[in-house]
């Protein structure tokens, strides 16, 4: 059993090494070294470069040899499988000291580069060969690959056949330039060189980003050969499972791209740090014919470093104002200094803005070369760039449209204004949801829509100076042209002439267009003069697109008017006038006391009895009528002056009225509320309302109020009863009001202050009167007991909580100015009471629970008026 366990452990250990996730890229390439020993054959040196992560502790994937499977193209059975031993291993890493201009440089960009190499001889083939290598596994957590730890790699190279081009088999793979260990910082501009050279010296190279291939890596059961399949399966091979938003063509940020001529991969790095798989395909062209595509993939590490970079867009267009705003497109390390040369002979501008923002005002139009220099570490780190600024303000795009009908094309008119240069390029998008070709490059195009509704039209217009503006506007396409009428029903007098009006795009025609009813019936604004009510119809024709509408003109031979019934209101009140009339315009007199003398229903505020006259008008016909508004003063209701009383005091009200009846409210705190002079006894501030009515015509009562303000109650306190020793001064202290009076004055240094000093040699009871400026007052007493002994603290030796007297256990301080503490403990040393207030004591309970008869220990301490500390302790018996 132990032997079986050991074998199982070794198998698991071996499997762990096979499955270790270390691979960070690779490349399989070959070199033609001449004809083979057999006729019509060729010899090649085939090399695998395998990039292994430096920071994995597990020694997996450290194979001493690898297997290459060779397939003739189109075949699924390998021509042969060869074993390639490891010939060398080297480590390449990024050196942070190589670039002091990167803050927080990465320290984990490192590859262990292993080389496996062998020599093969294969017959020259018409179709060529594919040499493949597969293995598990790539790193876990790759940013642009889903579940990357369960993926593997497939590296391949292709030997072209003679059908592609005569002699094409005499080819060597492109040699990629070294430089894989570079620092790429998140959200920053970067460059990674995939450039290569052609060993044959006859081929041209082109570069493109492409899919990385998956390979061995499925961990199923105990299929250890799945990790390093031998032979590797034949083509075609599957692409890696890229995460959404990524692909072989977009392996990092969408802004990143590769130069097809140089192989320089550049752009803005992603904001998420981590590994990204990037694959380049290098196409070899010989005599204009594609003979081979060479592949290399590598895991590029994006770090949280911050590089120094001066980065501008190639060209800027400033078309709104001479004051321009520019910023560096790279977030640089803190403390970066920016030096701006605006190219207009103005002095250099120096800025330490964290984002590299600057503003500059150009004096004139023109094309300027801007130069930005970024400096860090007192100039040890420096980077610069240039851009073109085209300053031609005063460019405003715009357009209008003519027509609204669905049956006809809508005509668009460019209204762009350019102060410098002229608009010379237009790109229209007509917003037709039913078409894909709804665009135009004409200045003033037309478009016929197939559906009605609101259409979002966009114009992108460019000037000869390079200014670009985008204009968006929604146009309304209708099935019929729109007719806008100011009204659809109106009233005129039979002696009037009325001008009708309609607006819209097209030709108008009004009916009935007869000589005794209408003039100018084929215009938008005809004149009509009917003698009876008539409906006039208008037709709008927009290039064969027709709509109709109508206006009814009601005709009367006179104006009807009733100004309303005369009425009476209370003086200073307002009233809304309600005449009955079919008039269209109105004029009231006198206008001075009306809210609006031209309204049908104005608000009147007469200062006395007033006759209002209204003139009602329909065209040239008018009529007048009057209404009398009588204004009667309110009944006199004078509730008397406001007053202030003390709490629980009373006040007399003194009212004056002119009416036939009156009432008070509220009455709950009034004595004799039926009289004009009731007595009030409120306990809180109260407003009493007096309501008076008369029979002089005012329909509303007169209202008067009086406020009785009740002062808060005065609560006098002379302090707690106390004990002193003979010849000891006692500081009294009263509270409760602003003023005080002590009686008797015996022994007091001042009986009319809040805190007199008492010097007595016998027991004394003092009464203090506390009163306010309003003469509100209250009384309290303090009993002073005089002892002939020295200052001391007396404590009883027993108490009975349930009796009427002696029911609290408390100390009796004599000649003590301050009690420091009074504490009671039970027989187990538990503190059951603690207080420093001599007026309070223990009630024989603990947490609300009654204690049984028992003996308790007490401790007390106080300070005398002379500063002497007096401490006492003893026992007390609780009796029930």
TrEMBL record:
All residue ranges annotated as the PKD domain in the record: 323-388, 426-466
Signal peptide start and end residues: 1-20
Keywords from the UniProt entry: Signal
Superkingdom per UniProt: Bacteria
Name the record gives this protein: PKD domain-containing protein
Organism whose genome encodes this protein: Pinibacter soli
Taxon lineage: Bacteria, Pseudomonadati, Bacteroidota, Chitinophagia, Chitinophagales
